[in-house]
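Section handout 9: paired folding examples.
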Amino acid sequence: MMKQFRIEVPENDTLQIFSITELGDNNYEIHKAGDRIGMIHIDGDSHDHCKAVDCEIDLPLLNSIREGILLHRDLN
């Protein structure tokens, strides 16, 4: 069963909410308001490295989403 969780990311003066689905092998699908907006692969060896696949997210926001995923992963 795929794990799902939500993260909140500040962007400008608003708080963006994303649904994250863990796909396995450090791959995560990113959804916003029910729409798939991309996928991210987080390198297991280097937490600073990630690869966006088919992503409609700008880099600063993507980095914040990555940080949220890593925090969630560390807490669980």
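Moving on to protein 2 of 2.
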Amino acid sequence: MPLALGVRENERIFIGDDIAIAVVKQEGGYTRVVIDAPKDKKIVREKLAEGDLRDKLLNHQQD
């Protein structure tokens, strides 16, 4: 089951030892985040993901 978190501006979430996600601005239903991760980690917005990658992401979220 996915983890859902409530995060305020200027708070960070850590994933393992090498990934940090910071919420830098929330305004009118829009959230701006900064992701600090190693270059070998693929980071793609869902609406930009295509084909197999999109299917893989969607299926993983449903597990």
